[in-house]
Amino acid sequence: MERTPVAIVGASGYVGAELVRLLVRHPHVLLRGLYAHRHAGHEIAKDYPQFAGIVQATYEVFDAEAVARDCEIAFLALPHGESARAAEALHQRGVTVLDLSADLRLRSAAVYAEWYGDHHAPSLLPHAVYGLVERHREALRTARLVAVPGCYPTAAILALAPLLDARLIAPDGIIIDAKSGTTGAGREPQRSTHFSEIGEGVRAYKVAGHRHTPEIEQELERAAGKLLRLTFTPHLIPMTRGILATCYALPVDPARPAQAYADELRRTYADEPFVTVVDHAPDTAHLRGSNRVQVAAFYDARTGRVIVMGAIDNLVKGAAGQAVQCLNVLRGWPETTALDGGAIFP
């Protein structure tokens, strides 16, 4: 079978490198171009020694015409704002785009402006399919523009949405307390992720104002069928990879059996290749390096609250792996292609 040529734009960051790791072993993909403006001319194996002897490629300066000429698919691992312009240029030239920034995730340009600033390609928003495969698989089959979800939203939505779908939990009063490893902040050096700053502590950040909030609300509103406002507080913890979202919600019917919530998750995800419902609290260590998700649900009878948890590797299911999963769906390849490995544990 002839391999599909793909490009990675923004290939020098952690997400870009994770895309390379996954795609280099994809049997239907040919890595044709790695683009990183500031690193142009550098060999990727010198930036990421794990690719020595595996990937012989040099970063190039991004050029939409060159990508369109050589590639059918482009993954964009660029900062928000910058990504929209690249997506527009490639989409106009017939390239299928999988964007891993926030630029195409929100359906409303006004909501985007409230949280991120002016949108540089608002005409793209109606055409972008939200790339959470477990929620939008059918739409992704014919997509040419994919908004790959954020890492925190992936963990939280996969945990909460099935219970909102089934009207088992109320849409009002949802609280999401989430913890992330430091790779979620990207590779660029900054004081807040310096080892001596984060190594012995845990801190909340962007309290009452994290930009993933409207993305989570948008997708949970779709499940609940009504306007929804939630409290989302992220925390940075001293580990490299992983996200654990612990979510609190009120039951619609407190008399419902405690097992009903976990049973609904099992029913929803019975045929999903990457989501496993566990009967214990998920641990990010059991997902490291994999595209897998673990979710769990508990009922606290004393307080009358449902506690739902979702755990992922933020660089794989929370970013690069999810993008590859979307690619597999839209190209009609087996969904687990290049993603079927287990976690690295211990």
Task: Please describe what this structure looks like.
Helix content is 30%, strand content 19%. With 346 residues, the protein is α/β, with parallel strands linked by helices. It folds into two domains: 4-127, 3-Layer(aba) Sandwich (Rossmann fold), CATH 3.40.50; 152-314, 2-Layer Sandwich (Dihydrodipicolinate Reductase, domain 2), CATH 3.30.360.10. α1 (14-23) crosses α11. The longest helix has 16 residues, at 316-331. The model has no long low-confidence stretch (mean pLDDT 95).
Number of helices: 11
What pattern of helices and strands is seen along the backbone? EHEHHEHEHEHEHEHEHEEHEEEH
Rounded to the nearest angstrom, the distance between the terminal CA atoms is 37 Å
Q: Number of domains in the coordinates?
A: 2
Q: What's the CATH class of the largest domain, please?
A: Alpha Beta
